[in-house]
Amino acid sequence: MLHAADRRRTDTRERILELAEASTLAKGFGGTSIDELIAGVGITKSGFFYHFRDKTELAEALMDRYLVHNRKVISDIFDRADELIEDPLHGMLAALKMFAETLSNIPEAHPGCLAATFCYQDQLFSARIREMNIEGMLDWRTSFRRRFEAIVERYPPKREVDLDAMADSVITLVEGGLILGRVHQDPSILPRQIMLFRDFVRLSFS
Amino acid sequence: MLHAADRRRTDTRERILELAEASTLAKGFGGTSIDELIAGVGITKSGFFYHFRDKTELAEALMDRYLVHNRKVISDIFDRADELIEDPLHGMLAALKMFAETLSNIPEAHPGCLAATFCYQDQLFSARIREMNIEGMLDWRTSFRRRFEAIVERYPPKREVDLDAMADSVITLVEGGLILGRVHQDPSILPRQIMLFRDFVRLSFS
DNA sequence: TAATGGCTGCACCTTTGGTACAGTCATTCC
DNA sequence: GGAATGACTGTACCAAAGGTGCAGCCATTA
Hints:
The first copy, chain A, is mostly helical and 206 residues long.
């Protein structure tokens, strides 16, 4: 029988994922070999395939972690903004500023690029990976969309605004900003894009 | 002696590049095998390695084509805008609209994601590839930066604007928008992001 | 006619991502 | 205390992908 407190549980799987994530963010998933992972964790190949049926299952597990982390990042920021500010517009402005600050502090580690990495090789992976990728991006879209709707209600804009596009803007800037930041080796690019979008939000609803 | 009109010149190399580009955009560079390319072009492995020392040299050649295409896209649009409009702000607004239209028409084929593909695996490639990637992105930055400076001069904004970030916005949105468009299977996402940025530009300088 | 460009053909090598399966050792259940 | 189970190890073997090295061949060109 298997229950939560089973002492036989080891942290090997977790350690594989940890190392795989770091390596994937640094070198891409394709550049991360199983041999490298088992050497790093100190197990054998059989040990690896005991935990993951194949490399695709490892990718799925990484995406799973990413989705969890993703949701936490979004909700943490909006929860904090809601705690501090009642007004939807000013809450959004505060949230965007906090988000930009968060990105400044952990520029390399953001797993957003996991989505991009998998996106550009998705033919190689399972449909599961693609679905998870969509799911993660929909999390952003719906969270922002709902809040922009609240803003529009209280601050009707002069010109019509493409709310769907606006809701997608942040994740678009994150994905693009991570690429630019990486290419230019400049972690300030992404937070500055977010702050620029914040200016746009302020201008749009005032 | 080798000169331009050498009749022995074949188009094999060009055909390899053509096929490799299409395959890379569809499946990623890692997912594009040499065997697949030589089968498609109808040559042998030796034939491939006659043209390219290794797969990295193929990647470099693809990036080369991308840079050329990249510059043409930028200059075509701004040239046309300059032709029609003298005012820097309205020229920019027109250019952005034309760009969004262009993206709507050729959503799949835009090679921007070549940069992203290579970016997320750049440790595997030569320093050349990374330099070419930087070069391509600087093309965007400098082109836009110059034009935003002209706009600021004629239309001094009320609040201070981060011109560097603004100059990077379009390529950031392109890279991010290609990812979202790919994940959601929705080619309208990118052009709409560009149109949203256009709104921001209009609002910022009026 | 000789040289050269643009290949072909063949042999062989390494790395990576597996598959298959038997054995081991510590813990836990009864 | 013995059986079952979880978490592995070890060994052997396989195919695909990315090469390397080299000899040869054929059409064009100097």
